[in-house]
Amino acid sequence: MSMIEFHNVEKYYGDYHALRQINLTIESGETVVLIGPSGSGKSTLLRTVNGLESIQQGQLIVNGQDLADSKTDMNRIRKNVGMVFQHFNLYANKTILENVMLAPRMVLHRPEAENKKIAMDLLDQVDLVNQATKMPSQLSGGQQQRIAIARSLALQPKALLFDEPTSALDPEMIDDVLNVMKTIAKDSDMTLLVVTHEMGFAREVANRVIFMADGQVLEDDSKEHFFNGQPSNERARQFLGKIITH
Fold it and tell me: Could you tell me which residue ranges the ABC transporter domain spans (predicted)?
């Protein structure tokens, strides 16, 4: 079953053509990695999936709902499609536990005892249950990003979007965040769409690799063929060659 479908999607910022003729289908349970040079449209594409960016033409179906239809309930979409950003956006005046409990309390009206148990289980999953009573400012960037992931999981979404989740972190903090993402990819049936420059993560857990440049999808391939074979697109081959030599 398809979780996300792009049909001839076009996106503009004024005269700037950000997304061009996007046609993609992402199946439920897939882990798909989006790579490409800066400004290629990766983050824009990601943000259209939960309605943070609108599209001008085409059709975008998410969990059976047409995002271009004015009748579509975007709050319902966002319940089922979580997002983890580059920056953690935690509530500075709330404890770690409260950050994770807040959305389920407000959106799902989950009973408090059940909400707390689920939140604590998620903090355990990201190996931060011992930080539950601390404030975000008391945690490192890597720890805060793992809390942001737990917070996104708290609504029990069907899909989770990651927009370069390690790009703002110091190098020694990256592995802890990637390990949490790998566990989600391997142990859950959630659909993951990940914008990242972490090729080791893509090699290990992606089902597919999508290469974008200039607002277009130039390559859509299995990780095995993309990394071990030769991408059919010359721009993708050049990009991959630069990554491998660094």
Answer: 4-239
